[in-house]
């Protein structure tokens, strides 16, 4: 029975959550843990370390982060790592003023959802983003 669980876990898509708010991290982990293998970090520097060691299918990124990198800066740096350029970079942020979404999407993030969000909407967004990437890879 445990062998099947390990096999099933290896088939799960892998996400890196870059978020500094512990409440948001806990909510995301609780909502997504059954569908995805998840690592989480709270700053851009740690995200780069994790991305250099692991292969992720998508990145969930908060924009307002502590340290030297905000979410946009972290996205730009993550995209420099081999095989990460075409991955989905999903902004999960409280920035929801007119123009914020366009700003994030023109600066490296590929998808956007504002807090608070509905679980079904987030799950659909992640699934669609990963599927889009798979389809892009097949066309290359």
Strand order of the largest sheet: 2-1-3-4-5
How many strands appear in the DSSP assignment? 5
Count of separate structural domains: 1
CATH topology: Rossmann fold
Low-confidence stretches: 1-8
Mind telling me the CATH superfamily name? Response regulator
Q: Helical region count?
A: 6
CATH architecture name? 3-Layer(aba) Sandwich
Strand content: 15-25%
What layout of secondary structure does this protein have?
Layout: H1 2-11, E1 13-18, H2 22-32, E2 36-41, H3 44-53, E3 58-61, H4 71-78, E4 89-93, H5 100-105, E5 111-114, H6 119-139
Parallel strand pairs: 1-2, 1-3, 3-4, 4-5
Helix pairs in contact: 3-4
What does this structure look like?
This protein has a single domain, classed as Response regulator (Rossmann fold, 3-Layer(aba) Sandwich), CATH 3.40.50.2300. Mean pLDDT is 90; it is low at 1-8. A five-stranded parallel β-sheet has the order 2-1-3-4-5, sandwiched between helices. It is 47% helix and 18% strand. The chain has helices spanning 2-11, 22-32, 44-53, 71-78, 100-105, 119-139; strands spanning 13-18, 36-41, 58-61, 89-93, 111-114. The longest helix is centred in the last third of the chain and has 21 residues, at 119-139. The chain starts with a helix and ends with a helix. It has 140 residues and is of the alpha/beta class. Helix 3 (44-53) packs parallel to helix 4 (71-78). It has six helices and five strands; from the N terminus they run αβαβαβαβαβα.
């Amino acid at each position: 029975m445990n062998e099947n669980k390990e096999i099933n876990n290896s088939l799960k898509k892998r996400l890196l959550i870059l978020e500094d708010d512990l409440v948001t991290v806990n909510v995301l982990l609780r909502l997504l843990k059954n569908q995805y293998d998840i690592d989480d970090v709270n700053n851009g520097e740690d995200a780069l370390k994790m991305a250099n060691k692991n292969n992720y299918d998508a990145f969930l990124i908060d924009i307002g982060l502590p340290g030297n990198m905000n979410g946009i800066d972290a996205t730009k740096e993550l995209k420099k790592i081999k095989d990460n350029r075409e991955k989905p970079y999903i902004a999960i942020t409280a920035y929801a003023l007119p123009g914020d979404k366009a700003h994030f999407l023109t600066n490296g993030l590929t998808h956007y959802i504002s807090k608070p969000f509905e679980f079904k909407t987030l799950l659909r967004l992640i699934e669609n983003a990963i599927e889009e990437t798979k389809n892009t890879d097949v066309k290359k």
